[in-house]
Design the sequence.
């Protein structure tokens, strides 16, 4: 992801080498669900019915920015070597939630943040 992306409900992101998270958004809140790695997918079924949630985080608009990464400053802290210290950041801007790779300013993550499916 090389530019800002407006987050839509039900989008699945891949971070680091093989970590995935599902984002559910509403006008005033957002949840991030860390899920088990999807090695195979049944195309005829929605992704939401095929995932196993490992951990769930809930945020309100006033909680932003929400950093995802390995540092203690991250609200979604994941102790995984393939993740950057600041993997990505989610913000509430205007009427939308946005996701940006890295620190959201001038430094990108090492292994990228990818929109996997929606």
Sequence:
């Amino acid at each position: 992801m090389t530019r800002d992306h407006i987050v839509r409900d039900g989008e699945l992101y891949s971070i680091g080498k093989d970590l995935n998270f599902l984002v559910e958004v509403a006008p005033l809140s957002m949840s991030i669900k860390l899920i088990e790695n999807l090695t195979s997918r049944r195309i005829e079924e929605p992704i939401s019915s095929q995932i196993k949630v490992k951990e769930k985080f809930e945020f309100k608009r006033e909680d932003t920015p929400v950093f995802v990464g390995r540092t203690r400053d991250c609200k979604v802290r994941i102790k995984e070597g393939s993740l950057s210290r600041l993997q990505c950041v989610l913000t509430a801007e205007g009427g939308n939630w946005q996701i940006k790779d890295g620190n959201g300013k001038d430094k990108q993550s090492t292994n990228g943040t990818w929109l996997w499916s929606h």
